[in-house]
């Protein structure tokens, strides 16, 4: 059974690079990866905040947020 992973980003160059190198590197037999573009899907910002995402890009594995590099504060997307 795969575990849930959510990669939140906003399409900036830092985010795209992180998606290509981090989110896509996860073993698909272990993780069901969902890519969420918060720049175009702002309704999901409260969801990201609720799990502790403070900046993007961020990868949430099994409910725990991991911030990757720095693209923008989540508050900048509101």
UniProtKB/TrEMBL annotation:
Gene3D superfamilies associated with the record: Glutaredoxin
InterPro entries: Thioredoxin-like_sf (IPR036249)
Domain of life: Bacteria
SUPFAM superfamilies: Thioredoxin-like
Protein name per its UniProtKB record: Thioredoxin family protein
């Amino acid at each position: 059974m795969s575990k849930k992973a959510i990669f939140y980003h906003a399409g900036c160059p830092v985010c795209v690079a992180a998606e290509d190198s981090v989110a896509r590197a996860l073993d698909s037999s272990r993780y069901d990866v969902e890519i969420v573009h918060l720049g175009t899907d702002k309704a999901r910002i409260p969801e990201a905040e609720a799990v502790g995402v403070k900046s993007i890009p961020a990868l949430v594995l099994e409910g725990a947020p991991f911030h990757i590099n720095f693209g923008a504060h989540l508050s900048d997307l509101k």
